[in-house]
Amino acid sequence: MKNVRKTLLIAIGAAALAMTFTAPARAADVSAWAQDSYSAFRLIAGSNKAGATPLRAGIEIKMGPGWHTYWRYPGDSGVPPRFDFSGSENLKRAEVRYPAPYLYTDETGNTLGYKNGVTFPLDVTPQDKSKPVDLHLKLNYAVCAKLCVPAQGSAQLTLVPGTSAQNATLAAAEARVPKPVTAAQAGLTVKRVKDGAKPLVMVDLKAPADEKIQVFVEGPTPEWALPIPKPAPGAPAGHREFAFALDGLPPGVSPKGAVELTFTIVEGVRPIQVTTRLD
Fold it and tell me: Is the peptide bond before 178 cis (omega within 30 degrees of 0)?
């Protein structure tokens, strides 16, 4: 009887998830859901004024409870999403913007991404701003719980000026995209403190000692796979320090040379992004 009850509950949960992913789409606001085994995604439109550019849109991904997908840099393992807009019409450029990720730690290491769902804002620039953009997306991504599975699909949405019922969802995602600031504005300095094959890099950040802060670092190209900075002791009053080894560099790159690094700093609901030079 227990097995029968468990099977029934699983079936009911699966049916509820399917109903969530297959809800009817509103014309001009959303595309149909592109479903996979454990996730689904769709295109959504933001509210856009006539003649405005870029147009605001987004890619909304939903996953089953406990499942997650990845940021542009996934961390110790994982696959970043791949967006292909090559089938679109009247499209000059589509820029995907990434909300600040969350850090998940398990037996496989540290992962950067999003659990249960995420919306990636899109800045869509038309070739001719007097005409609609017929946006076509092919998306390859991965979703993980205990195991990771690949997911893919396609979605289509025509972007036109007007008010969208999805605007609040898109605005919330846009607010989670780190704001670019200078190193001076962020109060951030970075330097090597130990030499060697994998030099230790110290990040000093002006920040309260009692506020939760996460710092993520990326190299100048996607081929870099730097460790996630860890909090370090001994910071002066009003500062926080983080350290990481200059490891995971592409072949042929010297760990002793000058390099441009990008830091994503998540402090409460105010994520920022700093690109600075490590000499």
Answer: no
pLDDT(13) > 50: no
CB 217 within 8 A of CB 262: yes
Q: Measured on CA atoms in the order 83, 86, 90, 93, is the torsion positive or negative?
A: positive
229 Cβ contact list (under 8 Å, min separation 6): 203, 215, 216, 217, 242, 243, 244
Tell me the pLDDT band of 32, cut-offs 50, 70 and 90. very high
Q: Considering only CA atoms, which of 37, 43, 2, 11 is closest in space to residue 25?
A: 43
Q: What does the alpha-carbon distance between residue 58 and residue 124 come to, in Å, rounded to a whole number? A: 9
Distance CA 248, CA 186 (A): 26
Residue 39 contacts residue 81 (beta carbons within 8 Å): no
Bridge partners of residue 117, in order along the sequence: 62
Neighbour-count burial for 235-258, b at 16+ CB within 10 Å, e otherwise: beeeebbbbbbbeebeeeeebeee
Amino acid identity, position 86: S
Distance CA 267, CA 249 (A): 27
CA dihedral 184, 215, 230, 70 (to 10 degrees): -150
* pLDDT for the residue 270: 82
Report d(CA 220, CA 204) in Å as an integer.
20
In this predicted structure, the answer to whether residue 18 has a pLDDT above a threshold of 70 is: no
